[in-house]
Amino acid sequence: MKTMINQLKALFIIGMLFPALFTACTATATTQGPPPTRVEVIPRAPSGRHVWIPGHYVRRGRNYAWVNGYYRVAPARYSAWTPGQWRQTRRGPVWVEGHWR
Asked: Strand, helix or coil at 2?
């Protein structure tokens, strides 16, 4: 009887661990970065105070979606716009928003 209980325990443990082996294999896949940046035609600025913010990809689940570039009115006290960029992290590529300097 004890042998049968031990066998059932062993089968239960194997049954619990078996799917985890396949899950672990998919987790090691490398994460691809975004596609190459699109070429944008930059329209004329509405005024001298507008700054062009270039388009970029954002992550939507497992896919990337393109966000078109646009003009933004510069704050009264700024020196320049630092564009956003993709940075590689342990979890994969991450988009860091642009900011005013």
From this structure: helix
DSSP character string of 5-65 = HHHHHHHHHHHHHHHHHHHHHHHTSPPP-PPPPPP--PPPPSSTTEEEE--EEEEETTEEE
**For 24-44, what is each residue's pLDDT tens digit?**
333 333 357 788 889 999 999
Q: Tell me the sheet residues that pair with 73.
A: 50
First-to-final CA distance of the chain = 75
Q: Residue 88 corresponds to which tokens in the numbers above?
A: 């590689």
CB 43 within 8 A of CB 52: no
